[in-house]
Each structure stands twice: as structure tokens, then as C-alpha cells.
Amino acid sequence: MSEASSTYDAVVVGSGPNGLSAAIRLAQEGLQVLVLEAKATPGGGTRTQELTEPVFLHDVCSAVHPTAAGSPFLSTLPLQQHGLEWVHPTYPFAHPLDDGDAAVAERSVEATAKSLGIDRSSYQQLFQQLSAHWTSLSSDVLGRLRIPKHPLITARFGFYGMFSADQLSTMKFSQAKTRALFAGCAAHSILPLEKAFSASFGLVLAASAHAVGWPFAKGGSASITKAMISYLESLGGTVECKQEVRTLKDIPSSRAVLFDLTPRQIARIASNKLPSGYKDKLQDYTYGPGVFKIDWALSEPVPWKNKACRKAGTLHLGGSFEEIASGEKAAWDGKHSETPYVLAAQPSVFDDGRAPEGKHTFWAYCHVPSGSTKDMTDIIEKQIERFAPGFRDTIISKHSMNTKAFEQYNPNYIGGDINGGAQFFKQLFGRPVMKWNPYKIPAEGLYICSSSTPPGGGVHGMCGLHAAETVLKNEFGKA
Fold this sequence. Notes:
By secondary structure, the chain is an alpha/beta fold. It folds into two domains: 3-84 and 217-286 and 421-476, FAD/NAD(P)-binding domain (3-Layer(bba) Sandwich); 91-120 and 161-215 and 288-409, Polyamine Oxidase, Chain A, domain 2 (Alpha-Beta Complex). It has 17 helices and 16 strands. The chain has helices at residues 17-28, 66-69, 109-114, 120-132, 134-141, 151-161, 165-172, 176-186, 198-211, 222-234, 263-269, 276-283, 321-332, 377-387, 403-409, 425-429, 462-476; strands at 8-13, 33-36, 48-49, 58-59, 86-87, 91-96, 102-105, 216-217, 238-240, 254-259, 290-298, 312-317, 342-345, 360-368, 395-401, 446-448. The strands form four sheets. The chain has a seven-stranded mixed sheet, with helices on both faces. A five-stranded parallel sheet has the order 9-2-1-10-16, with helices on one face. A two-stranded antiparallel sheet has the order 3-4. It comes from Gracilimonas mengyeensis. This is Phytoene dehydrogenase-related protein. InterPro entries: FAD/NAD-bd_sf (IPR036188).
């Protein structure tokens, strides 16, 4: 990869949001960038397909995008000029309860707090500042490892975030309804809710709901991919699909190679270039539980018992904090819960282009042990029926994916892990290895830009940005 023989300035392997973000940042500096994608279509976790019936558009992986809408990098890009449009539901998310009530997150902190009764002041005190200073907070929380640029708000977040979700919700909230609302956000971490720092995920996601919302991409998550590629191409970048990389020999000559892949794949592709100690650490990297996902084509909207749930884009199903915590611990311990936490989304209620007139799409998954092949369809549908009696009567057809299908669809999803690796304390900050600059691989011209680096999973593009900034500094002398 010498400068004289380089065909490209940089090659990015993988076209997920992080790979495209890295490519865009490099192309913004006038570099010649090529993105290689193994599959027939680009996008990684942001693809949309007709999984059930013709004209029913389903998001294969990610569907709801608070971290994309609130990303310190993606929000600076002219993606709207390239076709991206955000669709905001009436309520970002809701958490139905067994008594017919529901905890509902509104865009307003005050309105949400008001609905939480005796927890009103505690909720407002916890989230008012975090959401009001979201721009500053997100630039630090989603930033690279360094001294925070906004120490006061980041210290506030850090103090509360270091607790487990169980500890923080017990400390701050008095009623089960509010604890359940927080549990639904924290469980996005795919961590046991008694683990340290699991509260941080609940804080970030709830604050983002108030600050930027939990929107859908109009037409499906593939719209994000299309807009990013359109912008990349306007900068002179290129994306080539059906280009599987098995070894470094499959990559055209370039000054730098950035892998939007997880450690296991990098260890295999670059095996003969990696120091043995580093390769051992990549191979020892810990992946988390997987997911079992279902997409449905429906004859009508989901008949939620609580009417407010019909206006929410995202639903967290699982009743109480204790039930959700039990289900998440089971998946971590290699067990299948009979009453799992189910994360659901109903995009067609707010984006009528997702399904034929009068019909709807519905999306849901639960967490399962890594590599699980158990069919969770009946269990998930029972959880939905519990809060939406008659749901099964609306089903036209369905499509399911277990962990094996997820990994086949996207090799980054090792064992069905959609976060690029478990996000417990050590791997929250030390991804994929504990070092100050985790984006640089200790081999000439090689870098990692996937969600297996800080700040981890989510459609925010920040892992790609940080890797690209490292490349610009190391390889091209651009600070």
C-alpha cells in the first residue's frame, strides 16, 4: 500500500452507516474513496425490502432512528437534499401496562413528566438538562475518547449513567409505571439491567426522544443509505456491490483500508499482517446476545388496548421493570424467556408509503441467546396480544429471522448480535481492544470503523467519522 502504487486514497470494506460515514468524511477532503460491499445491495443495517408481500416495505434491521437524527455528524450532512426525509410519530415511544394504562414519552419533557404522577419532578429533574443540552451532550457521549468538551453536562450524564438501570430507576422513581418506562429504553443496550452503566443507554435514548425525537426514515431505512451514497457520489466517491473481501488481496491498492467489519472478520481477512497479540485480542472479543425478529403485513393497524399506543412509533412490551430485567438476564445467560422484552415499531401508521392503502407493516424483535435457532414467533405474538387483543386477526402474512438468518444476511451480526459486540463496561470503552486510539489497527494502512469501536452500536455514523479522522491525521497529515 505504498503511496506511489495506490489506485485509491482509501478503500472502505462494508457499506453500513459507519462505512459510508467514513467514506464521506474522507471524500470531503478531496480523497479518492472506494466502498466495497459483499452483498447485492448496500446499507448493512439500513436496508428495506418486501419481506412479506409485494408493496409492503419492511426494514430488515434498524427501523427507528433517534441517534441518526441526533448524530453530531449525520446531522451536518446535506442528506435532505439527497432525498432523506424524517417522519416523526405523535409520540416517540410508549410502554403499555397490564392494567390498560401506558407510560408514554412525548417530545416535551414537561408533558411526559406530568403524566407520571408522583414521579413528575424526578423525571423532569433527570431529563430536562440532558435533553436541553443534547447537542453538547451527544458530541461528548458519541465522541471519541478524550477530555469532554462540555464537562458540566457530560459529568451530570456520567454520574447517573454509571449506575445500573435497576439502581438508577429505584433511586429516582417511586412508581412501577415510571420504572417500566425507563427499563424499555435501557433494555436497548441488550445488557442485564443490573449491570453497571446500563443506565447510560436509558438516559441517552430517553433524552434523545425529547431532544430530537425517534423518527422513521420516509420510505424505509434504505432511504438513509440512498441519501448517504448520493452525497458520497457527489463528492466523487464510489460504491461497488457484490465485492466480497476474503483476504487483503481482494482490496485494490490504496493508502488506507478501513474495515466496517467486526473483529472476527478482520482477524481472518488481515491475519498475516496482524501482530499475534492483537489478533488474539480480536479473536477473544466478546459478542452479545442475538435477536429474533418478525415482520408482519397487517390488514389494519395494531389494535392496542391503550389508545395512546396507537400514536407511538415505537412500543416497548414487557410490563414491569422486573419482567424486562428477567428476560434480558435470561438471554445473557443463554436462556429463552417465555415473556421477553419485545421492541416493536409501527412505521406505516405515520408513513403511508410503506404499505398499500389501508394496510400496514409491523416490526418487532426480542433478545435471545447468541446463535439461538429457537422459533420465538408464538412467544412474541403472545406478548403483543397481551397488550393488543385481536392482533393475530390482523395478520396477512409474516417473515421471521433467527440469529443464524441475521448473520447470513449480514456477517457483522455474529451470533445475531446487532451491536457489533457486547456493550458491557470493558467493551463500552475498549472496543475492540483497550487503547487510546482504537480505530488504528497495528499494521500499515489498516483501520477499523465499525460499531465494534466507540461509541458502539446505533445508526449514527460516529465510529466511521472517528476512524476517518484518524486516517486523515495519520496518512494524509490533516489534523
